[in-house]
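seq:
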Amino acid sequence: MRRIYASFGKELGVKDTSGDPTADQRATYRQPVLVVSREWAPMYDQLVERLKGQPEIQVILDRRQLAGAGGKEARNDRGSILMIAMLVMLALSLLGSALLNLSAIEHNMAYNGLWAEGAFSAAEAGIQTGLNQLSPNPAGATQAIPVTAIGTGIYTYQFRSGQGIDPGPQPLVFRGSRIEKGYNIAVGTGYNPSGYAFHSYQIDATGTGPRSAMRELEVLAEYGPVAQ
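struct:
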């Protein structure tokens, strides 16, 4: 007795069972079996309909191949999802790093602005010190303002006379005098025919602070009137 193994449209082989002594095997081989392979699965129903008139032929759909194909597609899907997840994580990491760098830059800018404002205030303090030492005597009025610290801790600032490029405190600059005749200092002093003098000075002051913050100010000031 022979059993035919076939797929739809193609004979797979012929097995000779004439020498098989087992009765169960002989009973199994009495009915031919037609195995429909995976690529012909869509036509399985049509094949069953056509073979209704031949009950001796049994039609079987190879479901193992279909299950295997589904499992392979699932494995491929899982691999794709993993790659997409890794790309998303990489994008989020780059975005987080950029945000951290931006935050650090803004932090530094804010502190630099704070130190710069403090240095400017220190330079103003140097200008005020120079104005306070002006006098009718140009020799004493032009003395250099030494380095003076204000504040404590990390908020310590300094000021001195001179420009930022100068190695240390520099004397104030006497620019000259102008005479105004008949200038009246106050009520009751009367008229002074010799006039009164106004001394002109240039005051440069530099203020410094944390993180190399530095600001410079320059002021032209007059002291007077000075009786002649």
